[in-house]
Structures are given as structure tokens and as C-alpha cells.
């Protein structure tokens, strides 16, 4: 069992934010996302909502008077997360051009996006002390690493070859029971409580939405490719697989 050894890094690097540009407005702002004239036609009034929020993470980050990552981490640690933060919108990846089989990526509100960036950044700090991991290596660095250990493992009478394998949907196979003990150790190592461990709880507590082309409201249990059949949706390791 670890004790506090490292300091949790609350710094947010804008380059990490730019890796995924899109976020979602918090739910109170959602009426601004839809046609106000259509709302008036259907409900005889215009929608009421706070001013529109940008869907661009950097623009919203810069527009805020104050963005305190330490406060966000503290809110998560103390289990005081507002309901408006517990939302994930699944959006089909546009570059795949697959209408029915496209993979989805999850868009979060700004606060949970910052939480994600902060936790991944701190795991990255821990990974540098694990010499054989390859999660933080670039493709070029990984190739050089595999070539080096292949040469070191070869002898005059035999040759050793090491290769990299990319498992299909590997990052979606993680479950709360399997990874939470490891995350709890990372929390202790960084001197925080219920921060890394919350990465697996978040999908279980969140509402998940998917965009659909249907114009009709579905009643009762949904049985389609966009419906989540159990509570396993969104579970993944605390780092990007």
C-alpha cells in the first residue's frame, strides 16, 4: 500500500485541452441548442435558458472569469458533484464515414473535461517511473523501444523479436471491480482521495445521450444499437487507451 509520495499536479496545459476540441454546454443551456421558433410553435412560447455557451473547449475555457482545477478536483473528491456535470453525449466519429457502424466518442461539460485532462496528466507523471510501459510513448519511440529490446534479447544462436499488438476495443473491457483497487493506490500515491477512483464511477452515475435521426419520441424500453443495455457504457481506464 502506497503513502503520499508525489504532489498532485493541478496545472492544465492548453495543448492537452486542444487534443479534443469539442465539449457540451451544461444542461441548463441546452434549450439554446435548438430552434427557438420550433419551440414557440410547439409550446406557444420561446424557450427560457441562460445565455448560450460555446461548444469549443478553448473558447469556453477563456470566456470563464475563473477556472480553478483545484476546486473541481476538490468537488469530485468530496463527492459533491452537481448533477449538471454528470452528462455524457455520444457523437459518431465523423472521419470514419460509417452511418451505422461508426464508433462514438463522449463529449463532457467543461468541468469534467478538465477533470479528465488533470487525471490523465497525473497518471502520465506516474508512468515515467515505470520503464517498461509504452502508453506515453509516441509511435516512433515505441518502434525504437521494441527494436532495442529485440537486439538486447538476441544471442548468437537465437534471435528474439518483439511486436506491438493493438487489441480491438481493449479500453472498453475494464470494469469497476478490476481497476478501482489500482486507482485507489494512485490516489494514495498522489495524496488525494476518491479522485482517480472516480474515473470508473462517473459513467455509472451519469446520464448518457446519443444523437439520433429519428423525429419521434420512443416510449418504453429501447432496443436498438444506440441504447445502453446495462451499466457498462463508458467504462474505461483512467488514461487514453
TrEMBL record:
Coiled coil: none annotated. GO terms for molecular function: ATP binding; mRNA 5'-cap (guanine-N7-)-methyltransferase activity; RNA-directed RNA polymerase activity. Pfam families: Mononeg_RNA_pol. InterPro entries: Mononeg_RNA_pol_cat (IPR014023). It comes from the Eukaryota. Residues 159-241 form the RdRp catalytic domain. This is (African queen) hypothetical protein. It comes from Danaus chrysippus.
Amino acid at each position: 500500500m502506497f503513502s503520499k509520495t508525489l504532489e498532485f499536479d493541478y496545472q492544465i496545459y492548453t495543448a492537452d485541452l486542444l487534443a479534443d476540441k469539442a465539449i457540451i454546454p451544461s444542461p441548463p443551456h441546452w434549450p439554446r441548442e435548438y430552434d427557438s421558433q420550433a419551440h414557440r410553435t410547439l409550446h406557444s412560447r420561446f424557450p427560457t435558458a441562460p445565455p448560450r455557451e460555446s461548444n469549443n473547449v478553448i473558447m469556453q475555457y477563456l470566456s470563464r472569469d475563473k477556472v480553478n482545477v483545484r476546486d473541481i478536483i476538490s468537488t469530485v473528491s468530496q463527492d459533491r458533484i452537481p448533477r449538471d456535470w454528470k452528462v455524457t453525449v455520444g457523437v459518431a466519429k465523423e472521419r470514419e464515414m460509417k452511418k451505422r457502424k461508426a464508433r462514438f466518442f463522449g463529449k463532457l461539460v467543461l468541468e469534467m473535461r478538465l477533470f479528465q485532462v488533470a487525471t490523465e496528466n497525473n497518471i502520465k507523471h506516474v508512468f515515467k517511473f515505470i520503464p517498461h510501459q509504452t502508453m506515453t510513448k509516441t509511435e516512433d519511440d515505441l518502434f525504437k523501444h521494441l527494436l532495442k529490446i529485440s537486439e538486447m534479447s538476441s544471442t548468437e544462436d537465437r534471435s528474439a523479436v518483439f511486436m506491438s499488438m493493438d487489441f480491438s476495443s481493449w479500453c472498453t473491457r475494464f470494469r469497476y471491480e478490476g481497476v478501482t483497487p489500482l486507482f485507489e493506490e494512485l490516489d494514495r500515491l498522489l495524496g488525494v482521495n476518491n479522485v482517480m477512483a472516480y474515473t470508473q464511477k462517473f459513467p455509472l452515475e451519469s446520464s448518457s445521450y446519443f444523437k439520433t435521426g429519428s423525429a419521434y419520441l420512443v416510449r418504453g424500453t429501447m432496443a436498438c444499437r444506440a441504447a445502453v443495455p446495462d451499466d457498462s457504457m463508458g467504462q474505461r481506464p483512467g488514461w487514453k487507451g
